[in-house]
Design brief:
By secondary structure, this protein is of the alpha+beta class. It contains 9 helices and 8 strands.
């Protein structure tokens, strides 16, 4: 047989064989058994664990030139470790941030007894609306200066000091000097129940979650003010939907030095964050509120494919 004839027959044989094999293999792939070409189960798909939910963790923080004073601290509630700025022990006046202690101290001392309706209303508005008159009434019921002494002792504060303002003869709660390190300890003291006791801790935290009002002038009155701003503005939506964050800010434009004395405190299940500052009055309340939000956003752990909720641009001086 000639070589050309042999080659033609061989090619024809391959084509015919392939035509028979391919349908057979196709039939095996589509016989409903779920088996592959060789009758083996397909390899299982690898399980990909979802990323952990966002939280706050120590990180480098960068803010614009705030002014004379800026400090922050973050407490990890699972370890008790506190991290923060290099001047974490430097102090600022507490302003209204201390009202959570004034309320908690009053309620803890009641034990299981219910307060008079008027005092319970005062306790609520002192936190929700940062009402000075209500806080002062409870401060007096607690004995005045001893209220601060109990805060230092019960919460284990090491940098906090009572202050008698110039020209005055008594301790003012708003002038109490507190560090960022002690501020997160105060937040933890409220969260873990030492401040208000077993019965009243859930109530105090719930009031902190219901803080209301903005930085707008209409919400800022002479003896009370809107305080729902700051750290929570820098937290991602997922975190805020997962957990209601308890907050209490303190802010006053002190005419004696021309500075805003502003503090932000937020308490979550896993962490406590405090941001303290003093800055020129001309920068306004929004400036300090946005600094607090910016610090929080920079401490949020990175999430794959997620965008952080960034606070409003910082107000320029």
């Amino acid at each position: 047989m000639r070589p050309r004839v042999i080659m033609v027959l061989a090619i024809a044989s391959i084509l015919l064989g392939g035509g028979m094999l391919v349908p057979a293999a196709y039939a095996r792939l589509n016989d409903g058994s779920g088996l592959g070409v060789f009758g083996a189960d397909p390899p299982p798909l690898a399980e990909v664990a979802p990323p952990p939910p966002p939280t706050l963790a120590p990180a480098e923080v960068s803010v614009p030139d705030v002014g004379p004073f800026f400090s922050w601290a973050l407490l990890d509630r699972s370890t008790g470790k506190i991290s923060g700025s290099k001047n974490i022990t430097a102090t600022n006046s507490t302003e209204s941030m201390i009202k959570i202690w004034i309320v908690a101290d009053y309620l803890r001392r009641l034990g299981d007894a219910e307060p008079p309706a008027e005092d319970k209303r005062r306790a609520s508005t002192a936190i929700r609306d940062s009402d000075d008159v209500a806080a002062q009434a409870l401060y007096r019921k607690g004995g005045g200066a001893p209220v601060i002494d109990r805060m230092i002792r019960i919460c284990g504060l090491t940098d906090t000091k009572k202050v008698i303002p110039p020209g005055e003869s008594t301790v003012w709660w708003s002038y109490t000097r507190i560090s960022a390190r002690d501020a997160v300890r105060l937040g933890e003291c409220v969260k873990n129940g030492k401040a208000a006791g077993e019965k009243w801790t859930p109530w105090v935290l719930d009031e902190m979650r219901k803080v209301r009002g903005t930085t707008a002038p209409k919400d800022q009155q002479r003896t009370r003010g809107g305080g729902r701003w700051g750290i929570i503005d820098g937290l991602p939506k997922e975190m805020l939907e997962r957990e209601q964050i308890a907050i209490k800010n303190g802010w006053t434009l002190i005419y004696a030095d021309g500075l805003w004395h502003l503090n932000c405190l937020a308490v979550a299940d896993d962490w406590v964050l405090a941001v303290l500052m003093r800055y020129p009055g001309r920068k306004g309340l929004d400036f300090g509120a946005n600094v607090c939000g910016s610090v929080a956003s920079q401490l949020v752990t990175a999430q794959p494919g997620a965008a952080l909720k960034v606070p409003r641009p910082l107000v320029k001086s």
